[in-house]
Every structure is written in structure tokens, then in C-alpha cells.
Specification:
The chain is mostly helical. It is built from 13 helices and four strands. The chain has helices at 18-28, 38-52, 62-75, 93-106, 111-131, 141-165, 171-175, 177-193, 195-200, 216-248, 252-255, 261-281, 297-307, and strands spanning 202-205, 211-215, 287-291, 313-317.
């Protein structure tokens, strides 16, 4: 391949298919990239920007360009180009999520433990949701605070309420309470953290990236897809793992090492998340599309008055 014609922003894999998106997200959610220093990430960004400008340094290989783009996509926001905070990156979802989820599943019996780990999880989720928002729609510190408090309160109320309600239920039902709380909180946390997009609309463009306006319907579609992805991301580990642990805890060797149950669950959750983080992110294209006919009447009429029927779909970044 002639590097002079190399398009670094062209998808390496077909983003219109699930398998293409899965390969892409396996690439950028690689948790090893979270260990790299900021200086290495900045070098990758500089190489990506040089490639975009058409001035690729002599001796650069295609693989080096692909790796630089991998680091860029994993650490820099697609809207602003700013380096994202480490904890909020999707590449940190496996190490961060496995630790928090593992301990949520382990310490589910007492109310204080439930309160503490749900609070930790919602604090983590709030940071991830803020980091991966559509940055074209700014949110104020007050709105962030309201979103955080609302989502955390929802998770705590759900978890504590169900924890008390399931005292007489089969043990496995009680083990599933953390997942119900996490799912309920995600349905509140993400829309609240991205409320500006719902209130004022999300920026939509044509196929070539030319801005056409703002759409609240596009925002609702994108946020709904993100909520589904996040719940799907957590579901296998938080539903299947309790069944596995309940079976394992019947064995005498497991009864002798109760102090290791927490670390064991953390490692098992990690095994689920290594696959589920990229799989859940791949459920829907990140560059989401919507038919012009489904937009708000004002925006739809505005697009048709300027472009006629030449534009049939609009595009927007749904976030992650």
C-alpha cells in the first residue's frame, strides 16, 4: 500500500457488520493500552494528525499507522480529540469493571456492603458516561451532580429494597439483585448524564460530515442504544456467574477458601468482560444513522428545503 494515499480515518474493518465492529472494539478496548504513559499516547496522536495532513514521517510502516490509530481511538475523544481520563476510557472497562462487579457479587448479603459497592459502581459509571458522551452537547457541573445523585439513589434504592425483599427468597435470587440494581441505574444514569442532548438535540450531519442541525429524536435513539449496550455488557457476568459460584460453593475445597471467593469472582468477571465489553459496544454502529423522514418536522423540512431528496439519512455519534 502506498502510504501517500493511506486514509487513517477509513475503518480498518467494515463497520456496517457486527463482526467488523467487534474486531474494531476488541482493538480499541484492549486493556493493555491503559498501561501506556500519556507521552506514548501523545506520540500516537501526533502520528495520526501527521497522516491526516499528508506528511507521514519517512520509514513509517502501515502497521505503525494502524497501531497509532488504535491508541488514538482508545484514548482520545472522537468529537473533541482531547485525551480522555484513564478511568473513563473503554480500555479501562475490563480492569475497572471486573474489580467492582466482582465485589458487588461477593458482598451482596448485608445492607452496608450493598450500599458501598453500589455507590462505587455508580461513581465509576457516571465518570464513564460523562467521558464517552457526545461532546458536542456540553453539560454543566450542576447537571452532572443531579445525574450522579439520581442514578446513585436509584441503584441504592433498588439494591437495598430488593435485598430486604429477597431475604426469604432462594439464595440465587438474592445473588441477582446487584444486576437488577445496575440495570435500573443505567436506565437513569446515562440519560441523566446526557440530558443536554435530549433537551437541546444532538448534532447531525450528512454522509460527508457536513452539519445539518440538531435533533432530539436522534439523541433519544443514540442514548437508548447506549443503555441497551451497557446492560448487555453487564448481563452475562452478573447473571451467569452467581449460578457458577452457587455450584462451586457446595464443594468442600471452596468452603475451605472462603477468603478467596472475592478474588475468584473478580477474575471470573474479568473473563466475561474481556469478551462482553467489545461485544456490547458492537451491537450498534458508533456512527449512528437515522432516516430524515423520522426527524422532527422542523429539522426535516429544513433539510428538504435546502437539499431536496438528495439527503435521505443523517448521521451522528451516539457515544459509548
Amino acid at each position: 500500500m502506498a502510504l501517500s494515499s493511506f486514509d487513517i480515518d477509513a475503518p480498518r474493518w467494515d463497520q456496517s457488520t457486527f463482526m467488523g465492529r467487534l474486531k474494531h472494539f476488541f482493538n480499541i478496548t484492549d486493556c493493555r493500552t491503559a498501561l501506556l504513559p500519556d507521552s506514548r499516547l501523545d506520540e500516537a496522536k501526533a502520528l495520526v494528525e501527521s497522516c491526516r495532513a499528508g506528511s507521514i514521517p519517512p520509514g513509517t510502516t502501515v502497521e505503525q499507522l494502524y497501531y497509532a490509530k488504535k491508541l488514538y481511538d482508545s484514548a482520545f475523544h472522537p468529537d473533541t480529540g482531547d485525551r480522555m481520563n484513564l478511568i473513563g476510557r473503554m480500555s479501562f472497562q475490563v480492569p475497572g469493571g471486573m474489580a467492582i462487579t466482582g465485589f458487588m457479587l461477593q458482598f451482596y448479603r448485608t445492607v452496608p456492603a450493598v450500599v458501598f459497592w453500589q455507590w462505587v459502581n455508580q461513581s465509576f459509571n457516571a465518570l464513564v458516561n460523562y467521558t464517552n458522551r457526545n461532546a458536542a452537547s456540553p453539560i454543566t457541573p450542576k447537571q452532572i451532580g443531579v445525574a450522579y445523585v439520581t442514578a446513585t439513589s436509584t441503584a441504592l434504592a433498588t439494591a437495598v429494597g430488593l435485598n430486604l425483599y429477597t431475604k426469604k427468597a432462594p439464595p440465587l435470587v438474592a445473588r441477582w439483585v446487584p444486576f437488577v440494581a445496575v440495570a435500573a441505574a443505567n436506565c437513569v444514569n446515562i440519560p441523566m448524564m446526557r440530558q443536554q442532548e435530549i433537551l437541546n438535540g444532538i448534532a447531525v450531519t450528512d454522509e460527508n460530515g457536513n452539519k445539518l442541525g440538531h435533533s432530539t429524536k436522534a439523541a433519544v435513539k443514540g442514548i437508548t442504544q447506549v443503555v441497551i449496550s451497557r446492560v448487555t455488557m453487564a448481563a452475562p457476568g452478573m447473571i451467569v456467574l452467581p449460578i457458577i459460584m452457587q455450584r462451586l460453593e457446595k464443594y468442600k475445597f471452596m468452603q475451605r477458601i472462603t477468603f478467596l471467593h472475592g478474588p475468584i469472582q473478580v477474575m471470573l468477571v474479568g473473563g466475561f468482560l474481556v469478551f462482553m465489553v467489545p461485544a456490547a459496544c458492537s451491537l450498534f454502529p458508533q456512527r449512528c444513522s437515522m432516516a430524515v423522514s423520522k426527524l422532527e418536522p422542523e429539522l426535516r423540512d429544513s433539510i428538504r428545503s435546502q437539499y431536496g431528496d438528495s439527503i435521505r439519512h443523517v448521521y451522528f455519534n451516539k457515544g459509548l
